[in-house]
Each structure stands twice: as structure tokens, then as C-alpha cells.
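Q: Could you fold this chain for me?
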Amino acid sequence: QVQLVESGGGLVQPGGSLRLSCAASGSAFGLYAVGWYRQAPGMQRELVAIIDPDGTTNYEDFVKGRFTISRDNARDTVYLQMNGLQPEDTAVYYCNAKHFMIGSRNYWGQGTQVTVSS
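A: Sure. Below is the predicted structure, expressed as C-alpha cells.
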């Protein structure tokens, strides 16, 4: 069992930056691929970025060059550095952890609100 807690959301002006954190409690966090997802009002939840247990990263096109995902396995934490934020980035951001071999071990955090507005 893994519990995930996101933090770092807030209100930021266009062009600003935020760093989200996803802190995990539980065992063997290093064996999980961790993704950041977001859901805007009235929209489906969508993948933003993902980092594999070996540190390989993948980004959706709409955040490439602006967002960076990283992980610190010693701290059981995954980060999402978001630069150049725009109003269309406004959403609730969720982290997800999925065991790299056992698909049923799939966990979500409660989400953190990011609002980009002047």
C-alpha cells in the first residue's frame, strides 16, 4: 500500500513558476512509475509527465520545455517543476504511482489546485 500526498499548488500569474511535490509513504517507492496528471473543470483527467523507476521521463507535448519531472527515492518524493505557466495550465494536479510489475498496485493522491491568472 502506498499513500500519496501532493503539495505545492497555488495561485500564480501567467509566466510564473510552481514546484509540485508528491510525497509517498509505504514500501518500495523506488519500484513505482510515478505520473503527474491534471484535470481542468469539465475536462477529462490527462497525463502531464511520467518518470519510471529507472529515471526515464516522458512528457506530453503541451508541457515539453516548460515542465520537469524528477524523483528523489531517498525521500520517496516526486517533483514537478512548472515554468512558464499559462492560464490553460489551470487544473487540479494529481500524482499517480503504479508498480512497474504489479499493475494492481496503482495509487492516486488527493490532488493540488494550480490556478494561473492575472
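A (continued): The chain has a mean pLDDT of 95.
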